Amino acid sequence: MSTLQARSVSGLPEVRAGDDVAALIMAALEAEDLDGQIVAIAHKVISKSEGAVVALAEVTPTPRAQALAAEQGRDPRAVQVVLDQSQEVVRAANGVLICRTHHGFVCANAGVDASNAAARDTLITLPQDPDASARKIRTRLRELTGTAPAVLISDSFGRAWRHGQCDVAIGCAGLSPLEDWRGRTDSAGLELRATWLAVADAIAATADLARAKDSSEPVVILGGLERYVTDEDGPGAVALLRPAAEDLFR
C-alpha cells in the first residue's frame, strides 16, 4: 500500500509582477530537498508574477459587454475582461458566463476572478500559457536545487451536474497528467474500456484540501507520487483537454 502526503507551505510573501516564484518557494522551504516530489501552485501566484492582473479603471466595455452585463446585473468592465479572455461564450445564465478560454478550458467567467487580488477593483486572469509557466518554474527549481520536482498549476472549476468547485490542473511539467488503463484488466480479469485516470486533476484536488482558501498558503508539496514524476517535462495539462468535437455539452 502506498502513502500519500500533502502539506501546505507557509511564509510566502504577497507575489508581485516579476517575482521569482521558484526562489520564493525555496526560501519558504529553507532549501528542502524536493527530489521526486510535486510542487502544486495555485494559479493566482503565477498570474500575479506574470502581470496577469487587470485594473477595471483601464477597461472600456464594448457594446456586447454592456449588453451581457445588463442581462446579468454585472459590471460591464468585468464582463469585458471575461470576453477578452474567451474564444467563445458557451452559455450565459444566472449571473455566470460559461466560456471556452483561449487555452481551451471551459469554465465560469473564463477563469477571471477578483478573490485574493492585491488591490481593489482589479481582476486576476489565468496565465497566458500555464504549461509554459510550469516548465519555467521547474527549470528554475533545477537551477536552484539541482533537482527537478514536478510542477503543477491549478485553478478551481465547477463540474457539470455537480455542486461546488474542485481544483484541476491547468498547467504541469515533469508529470504524467493521464494514466491510461484502457485495454488492461481489472482484478476480476475484465477488460477495461473507459478507465483513463486524470492524474493531474486528482493531484490538484488533493493539494487544494491541504490548504484553506483564506490561509495565504498557495503552494502545496506532495510526496508519495513518484511514479507519476518524469524526467522530461512531458505533454503538460493540455493533454487533459477534450477536443471540441468530443464535447457532449455543445
Instruction: Supply Rg.
Output: 19 Å
Q: How many domains make up the coordinates?
A: 2
Q: From the coordinates shown, what is the CATH architecture of the largest domain?
A: 2-Layer Sandwich
Quick check: average pLDDT? 93
Q: How large a portion of the residues is in β-strands, by DSSP E?
A: 25-35%
* Cα shape: globular
Largest sheet: 5 strands, mixed
CATH classification class of the largest domain = Alpha Beta
Q: Report strand order across the widest sheet.
A: 1-12-2-8-9
What CATH calls the topology of the largest domain is: 60s Ribosomal Protein L30, Chain: A
Structural class, please? alpha+beta
What pattern of helices and strands is seen along the backbone?
EHEHEHHEEEEHEEEEHE
Helical percentage: 10-25%
In CATH, what is the homologous superfamily of the largest domain?
CofE-like
Low-confidence stretches: none
